[in-house]
Amino acid sequence: MELRCEASAFNDINSPPAFKKVYEEVERYFVSHTTPSPERVCKTSLPPVYLQHQGHSLTIVGLESRKSGSRNLLVFDPSFKPSPGIQRLIGSTFTALAPEKLLKAYRRGDNYLSKHSSFELLK
Fold first, then answer.
1. Which of 55, 61, 86, 100 is the most exposed place for a label (fewest CB within 10 A)?
2. How far apart are CA 66 and CA 70, in angstroms?
3. 16: cis peptide before it, omega within 30°?
4. Is 38 or 10 the better-scoring residue by pLDDT?
5. 3-state secondary structure the chain
6. Are 59 and 48 in contact (CB under 8 A)?
């Protein structure tokens, strides 16, 4: 089986900070395979991106761009288990009245990412 992938490395040696470069690269990756849509959520069939920083890895499944201009990586973090609220929803169809509460555990934004000076991506 042949799997194609591309590795990238980012650090704080040059500006902008490494985490900003990660946002740009992840956005470029996901947007490159979407079609323009009036929907607020763009869907793609691309596989996730794997992010490594010192001593930890995350699986990036999306990028959230907020009205304020801030961005968050949407991730699965192997060091966290799904909350009981999420576990109850698995396998069901539902409408979330407050999706931001459900997404909070899966967001990694500036506060988290700026603590690290280097990253590696595998896509």
1. 55
2. 5
3. yes
4. 10
5. CCCCCCEEEEECCCCCCHHHHHHHHHHHHHHCCCCCCCCCCCCCCCCCEEEEECCEEEEEEEEEECCCCCEEEEEECCCCCCCHHHHHHCCCCCCCCCHHHHHHHHEECHHHHCCCCEEEEEC
6. yes
pLDDT at 14 over 80: no
pTM: 0.86
> Beta 7-11 vs 49-53: how paired, if at all?
unpaired
Q: How far is Cα 52 from Cα 104, in angstroms, rounded to an integer? A: 21
The first and second tokens of residue 51, run together, are: 């992010």
Q: How does pLDDT run across 71-111, given as a tens digit for each residue? A: 999 999 998 888 887 888 888 888 878 877 888 889 999 99
Residues 23-47: pLDDT tens digits? 999 999 998 888 777 777 788 888 9
